[in-house]
Design brief:
The chain is an alpha+beta fold. It has 7 helices and 17 strands. A hairpin with a 3-residue loop joins strand 1 and strand 2. Helix 3 packs across helix 4.
Length: 286
């Protein structure tokens, strides 16, 4: 890419500047867990993230504008609009899992939401809740309340971000349900364009940014089987690893099992064969 200048590396993506208004996001096959990038890659994971994000971006434009300009033929690279990204992660939880479950066990509260007593792990919440988090440059993101988030982005903008995040979650959860999948929770990132308009950026409703559970295996009171990287998290939890870099190597069976889960999530949610997408990325754009 002689026209592109590398400007940053994320846990999964490489970011290149094409010109003052456009970036190129290239999704690698790296996988992170507990905010540590592991040394073992998952084949085709970057293509799944790129294709699924493009699928959702194309179908949620009526809810909020997004940053996508074009998909490239490699099925893992996206030309996007340059934005001024907001300094918060916008998490919506429909079920009690992950850090939300841990917060609830300790305090009965997560991100300022006091939840009903007696909930079990993986229980469906009375209604989806918006639970913002910090964007940690190093280490783990931390759940914060709305007041803390309002300090970071402003109260008026936070109100709009919360409204849009809940609407995106509702759309994604309803679609996933028709495919036999529960969207337990998900994370969005937003930015502002040159006119100050809110724009959805980064990725959307992927196995990296969401918890997807097979509906026919759902059983409250335990951790759920999933189409996301929980499979890798669960394996790493068995190792006695202290969750600091460097992360552990993954055995072949975990790599194969993780790739299969990512690809199955793609195919079930999009109803498009993964190999068809790889051959022609435009098929996800509707």
């Amino acid at each position: 890419m002689p026209e592109a200048v590398h400007v940053a590396s994320g846990k999964v993506r490489e970011i290149f500047k094409l010109d003052p208004e456009r970036l190129l996001l290239v999704a690698s096959d790296r996988i992170s867990t507990f905010d540590v990038v592991l040394p073992t890659e998952i084949p085709d994971k970057g293509r799944v993230l790129t294709g699924l994000s493009a699928f959702w971006f194309a179908r949620t434009r009526d809810i909020v504008a997004n940053h996508v300009l074009a998909l490239r033929e490699d099925a893992r690279s996206t030309e996007v609009q340059r934005l001024r990204m907001l300094p918060i992660e916008c998490v919506v939880r429909g079920y009690l899992a992950g850090s939300g479950w841990k917060d609830y066990q300790a305090t009965g509260i997560t991100s300022g939401h006091r939840l009903p007593e007696g909930l079990q792990e993986s229980d469906r919440l009375p209604e989806p809740i918006f639970t913002p988090a910090t964007k940690a440059q190093e280490g783990h993101d931390e759940n914060i309340g709305r007041d803390e988030a309002a300090v970071l982005v402003g109260a008026e903008l936070l109100q709009e971000v919360e409204r849009v995040s809940l609407a995106l979650y509702a759309f994604g959860a309803e679609h996933a349900a028709t495919r036999g999948i529960i969207l337990a929770d998900t994370k969005f990132e937003f930015g502002l364009d040159e006119e100050g308009m809110l724009v959805l950026g980064d990725e959307a409703l992927t196995p990296d940014s969401s918890r997807f559970w097979p509906a026919d295996e759902y059983e409250p009171g335990r951790s759920q089987p999933s189409f996301d990287k929980q499979y890798v998290r669960d394996y790493c939890e068995t190792l006695g690893w202290d969750k600091t870099a460097p992360g552990p190597e993954l055995p072949d069976e975990v790599v194969a099992g993780t790739r299969a889960r990512y690809v199955e999530a793609f195919e079930r949610l999009t109803e498009i064969e993964f190999d068809r997408y790889v051959a022609d990325p435009t098929v996800v754009s509707g």
